[in-house]
Backbone:
């Protein structure tokens, strides 16, 4: 009779793997070294994830899940495009999240070079966030306008984050983000774009 799966242990291993991959990145990720550093056998990783590529997919899925939970908590009950955008910026621009944000851009680069291996990432990287931002605009929003606004938020915040990670110029990027976010509030209130 097979031993029952300990779901908590599986979740703990996934969370430890997420922390490991955030710290190490994926460029030089070694299956055997990951197992050693996580204090498990390579066989345990195979049983849990299947392959290194599937492990990376699981890590990225967990990070997506965490991001949406964190942004939702930061947005609170006053959910709008502007509050969702602000929550997204504040979370990703938090210096404590920079390793996670660097991993995101590292994976993005790999995905553009090898879209077949990173198909799941590419399927979700824009669509999920865009859908969430469309939803934040409410059911009364014009669908075409809501999609355009969501696209603008995704592209702008990702560009600001890339600049922040590249230059470290926190003051300039926070000021630019604040101007963008203030404009979103004004636009939502009927002001000019």
Residues:
């Amino acid at each position: 009779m097979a031993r029952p799966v300990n779901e908590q242990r599986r979740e703990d291993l996934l969370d430890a793997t997420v922390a490991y991959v955030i710290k190490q990145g994926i460029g030089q990720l070694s299956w055997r070294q990951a197992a050693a550093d996580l204090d498990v056998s390579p066989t345990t990783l195979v049983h849990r994830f299947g392959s290194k590529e599937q492990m990376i997919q699981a890590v990225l899925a967990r990070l997506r899940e965490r991001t949406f939970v964190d942004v939702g908590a930061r947005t609170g009950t006053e959910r709008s495009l502007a509050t969702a955008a602000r929550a997204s910026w504040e979370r990703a621009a938090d210096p404590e999240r920079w390793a996670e944000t660097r991993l995101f851009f590292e994976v993005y680069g790999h995905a553009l070079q090898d879209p077949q291996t990173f198909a799941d990432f590419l399927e979700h990287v824009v669509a999920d966030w865009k859908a969430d931002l469309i939803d934040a605009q409410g059911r009364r929003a014009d669908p075409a306008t809501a999609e355009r606004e969501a696209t603008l938020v995704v592209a702008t915040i990702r560009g600001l984050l890339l600049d922040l990670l590249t230059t470290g110029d926190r003051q300039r990027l926070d000021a630019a983000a604040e101007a963008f976010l203030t404009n979103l509030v004004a636009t939502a209130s009927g002001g000019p774009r």
Summary: The domain at 7-188 is CATH 1.10.357.10 (Tetracycline Repressor; domain 2).
